[in-house]
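Hey team,

Filing this mostly as a record. A colleague (T.K.) asked me to run one chain through the structure pipeline before their review meeting, and I want the input and output archived in the tracker in case anyone asks later how it was produced. No errors, nothing strange. Just documentation.

Input sequence:
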Amino acid sequence: MIEKNALAYVNAFALLGTIPALCREVDEARELIKNEKISLGFKVKGGPCMTLVFKDGECTLVRGTDGCDILLAFSSAEKFNGMIDGTVTPIPRRGLLKVGFLLKRFMPLTDILTRYLRASDEDLANREFFEISTRLMFSVISNALVELANNDSVSRFSASNMVDGTVRLAILDECEARIGIKDHTLSLEDPDSAYSAYMVFPDIDVARALFDGKINAVAAVGLGKVRIGGMICNIDNLNRVLDRVSVYLQ
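Output structure:
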């Protein structure tokens, strides 16, 4: 079962939260915002609150909506999730005169992101596209792990069995993330921080096969296709949350 409030956190910090990576990775996305200096906030009642800041061809995510130029406010998680799936058209609470940015810049950005995250076989036949798509999926999944562990009731049970420490998730020579655990609450940490457990994919092809559900994480570990070590209890419970990620991102 998908919980609507937890889905809102995934949509905010995992899906929209991957737009900064998209703008770094994809020339087409970077070109869209190269002359922009504007911030777009999303505020969900009882749910996520975040801002995407666009400046000098780059995008950054900050928590909160203080001072954002455009504010999209939602009375419920359902309304916000509806915007993500295209069934709800939001009206800015702030910055109505800047709505052109939403139509001419932000919406095309989300279209590009969708193309990379829900890639066709034809697009994936291009190796460069395949690698960018997989790195963006890694970003979505890393953020979704954190948000579900903190907001989804099933995933919170798994988090309750984790001990304090940091897990390194990585695709060797491609990208990585550090997931910190403190008092059963997860957060993304500095990528250079020390870690007490790790889960490493040897290459981008193995990672993609796992992301696409073509191989099972436990089986991949048993076959030596994925390396794990350190505090195994944290890896085991993180894999349980990973199962929930696949449910939310299907």
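Quick notes for T.K.: The chain has two domains: 4-118, 153-248. Strands lie at 37-44, 49-55, 58-63, 70-74, 165-171, 175-182, 185-189, 197-201, 227-230.
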